[in-house]
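User:
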Amino acid sequence: MQNSKVTSMTETEIQSATAALVRLRRQLTSIVTLTPADRAAARSVTKKAVLATQMRVVVAREHRDGLPPSFDLRAFEREVALLTALGECLAVIAQFHSDIRDTFLAVGTSAVRTSKVAFGHLQVMAESSGDINQALRASKLRTRKAKQADNASAANPPASAPSAAPVPASTPPTAAPMMALPPATEESHDGKTPSKAA
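Assistant: Predicted structure:
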């Protein structure tokens, strides 16, 4: 989509044209601004209605004798002439708006593509330096689905995991009872075991 005309365009050139448009708008002091209600009521001013009005003024001029004395033909002719001039101006402005819009889209497509490349490189650098992490997050293009998921997560935070039941302290094993040893026998000096008393 890159065009040689777009690449040769300068910021100063666009700013100068914008300033000229602002001056031109200020010169046209008779231009009116309609309210939403007035704009809705003027929907009947279609291209077909304008064409019919232009044809009717011609017929009225040729057959002015059929008009009543109170009808101001000259005022009607001035209105139609002004309407025709405004229609021509509007057509030029509409074409100009379309051309500016197309140029905006051509420049914007290239700029957005380049920004994605720069963003990818900056993300790699952010892994080793935390200084630009916040700026990167602010410049990240987020889709509508991602925003909805974040909003849902904020509205419904995950339930905290139930605390684990305390583990009872282990009871040390009970020592097995010691078996009683038989009483030690005494041996006589001659090596014989003395007999038990009867």
